[in-house]
Amino acid sequence: MGGIQARMEAALARFLPAAGIAPARLHEAMRYAVLEGGKRVRPLLTFAAGEAAGARPERLEVAAAAVELIHAYSLVHDDLPCMDDDVLRRGKPTVHVEYDEATALLVGDALQSLAFQLLAEHALADEPAAQLDMLRQLAAAAGSRGMAGGQQIDLESTGKPLSVPELEAMHIHKTGALIRAAVLLGAACGGAPEALRTRLDHYAKTVGLAFQVVDDVLDAEASSATLGKTAGKDARQGKPTYVSIMGLARARELARELRHNAHQALAPLGAEARRLRELADFIVLRKF
Predict the structure, then answer these.
(1) Least buried of 33, 147, 178, 233, by fewest C-beta within 10 Å?
(2) What domains sit in the chain, N to C, each tagged with a CATH number?
C-alpha cells in the first residue's frame, strides 16, 4: 500500500495547480487541503479494483486522483462553521481556520471542478462511451443522490433518533457512494466485464458501510491526537451513529460481519483480488 500512497501523493502534487500560480492564495490552500495527509483509502481501492480488472496504472492514477479530490473537497466543506464547525483535520488546522471561510469555500469548489477536468482530459477507457459513463458515475456519487445528499440527511438527523436501516441509508449516500465510485472507476479503467463489476460493486457497498461503522467506533474510543481530527464530536453534537444506536460491542461485531461479507464477494476472483481483501482488512482492523 505504501508504494501506491507515495505514487498518489506525487500524482496529486502534479495535478494540483502550483502554489505560485495566480490566484496564489487559492492554489496554496488547495494544496494544503489535499497534500501531506490522509490514508488515501479511496485511491487504494481504485488501484486494487483496477488490478483485478487488468487496468494500466497510468489510467488508475488519474481516476484515483479524481476521487481523492472529490473526497478532499467534501472534507473542506464539512469542516466549515455552517456544517460541522471543526478546527482539526488530518492532524492540522482545517482550511477555514488556516486561511478563512471564503477561501475554504472556493477551495472545495475548485477541487471538485479539477476532479472532473482530470476525468475529461485524460484517456481512461478504450471507448468514449465508457469514459463518459465514468464521469457520470463520479458525478452521481458526489451529488444529491450520493455524498451531498447524505450530508443533508446527516444535518437533518442531528438530535433525532434513527433506526439502524435509516442510519445505513444515510451512510450509503454520505460515505459509501464515493467509496463505491472509487472501486467502479478502477474497474472501468480496465474494461471489467459485467460479472466482475457486479462482484466489485457488492464488495464496494460492503466496505463502504464497514468504513463508517469503524469510523463511529474510533470516534467514540480514540483521542483527537490519534485520529487527527476532533474525537467525540458526533456524540457532543447529538448525531446518530452506529455506536449510539447499537452500542460499541454490536458495532464492532457488525464491522466484522461486513468484513466477512466483503471477502465472500471476492471469493471467486482468486489472486487478482488480493489487494482488495487486504483493504477490507485494513478498513475494519485499523486503529487510527
Answers:
(1) 233
(2) 2-285 (1.10.600.10)
